[in-house]
Amino acid sequence: MANLSNEELLMIAVLLDEEEEELKIKRRTRNVWVHPAWQKRTFEGEFVTLYKELVDDESKFYQYFRMTMYSFNKLLNTIESEIQRQDTRFRKCISPRHRLAVTLRYLATGDSLKTISFSYRLGHSTVYTIVIDTCRALIKKLMSEVMPVPTENKWREIAEDFWAHWNFPNCIGALDGKHIVIQAPPNSGSLYFNYKKTFSIVLLALVDAHYNFIAIDVGAYGKNSDGGILINSKLGKMLETNNMNVPSSSTLPGTSYTAPFVILGDEAFPLKSYLLRPYPGKQLDCEKKRIYNYRHCRTRRVVENAFGILTQKFRIFNRRIQANPENADLIVLASCVLHNFIKIYDCKSSYSRNVTECTQLNETTLNTIQFQGGNASQEAFHVRELFTDFFNSPSGTVSWQNEYI
């Protein structure tokens, strides 16, 4: 460099300045660059081309979004302020209606984020961000409305519905867990690996007689059992300490004898005074116990039905969710919130169940069960025996129960 003339040094400096400027331009271009296909979003994207056609056809609109137009607009008005974004100098923001359409389509079809990206002319990361932000807004705005903690009167109303539609008195919910398949989280070992040989998080749900979710817990490791998940969940701890506003007891139909309000679970859950499970064993030698198991399982299956309805409406549950566990939790929780929201505003549920007349209960049989002394486990056995005797009494029996034992 010392042998170069001043003119040569000046020329080198100019060339270096030009190269640096070109690099800056390339960086700026790369940061704001958008694929030509995405630039056509405003006149070729699925939201622009198809949505306006769906608005004119209620049936097609429902098939596309899994909800009525009224529910869609109600939903949009509720969360619009949470998902509204500002325009920038470089591009116009995606409208709240557009964002909600993308999220509902993702949940309803189970299509991959890449498929939604191509059809809506949006970047893959943009679609992912839209889905997660909208799910978070749905939870924030709707959770307290569609899934509040029931009051004592609400618990009694739920119990009345279970008796009217499923012939099980003093029941305040059916409980079960559902494994939601997700992609294997990095560095997670076997935490999410379940007995079905897939990676999953668990949706633990308490459901009423109309297939609505009363309370849910999402995100437990797939390797854990339903009973263990309940014990460590907020729902389980509140039930154990009686902080869920559950009434203490109520008289059984057709009798003056009182019994506690109970939740029904399967064999994976522990037997407690507030949580009943069937009698163990496939070949019970006692007809009374077989009748109880039939009545128990007949009522408990409403939670299985609720999971079926949820899966049928939101096909995202039919495939592996490509998201980290934290975001998968948001997707599952938002879907459950939407499940309740749609049932409230679309009024699609209906019932046609046999309701038995209440006759005189055999008080002599029931009065043999005492609730004095003993530990909680012994009390739980007594509670189950109480319902067993009730279902085998004139007031609790149904005409078809002997056909299924």
TrEMBL record:
Its cofactor is a divalent metal cation. Residues 175-340 form the DDE Tnp4 domain. InterPro entries: HARBI1-like (IPR045249), HARBI1_dom (IPR027806). Keywords: Hydrolase, Metal-binding, Nuclease, Nucleus. It comes from the Eukaryota. It is found in: Nucleus. The keyword Transmembrane helix does not apply. Its main location: nucleus. One of its GO terms (molecular function) is nuclease activity. GO terms for cellular component: nucleus. The keyword Nuclease applies. Belongs to the HARBI1 family. This is DDE Tnp4 domain-containing protein.
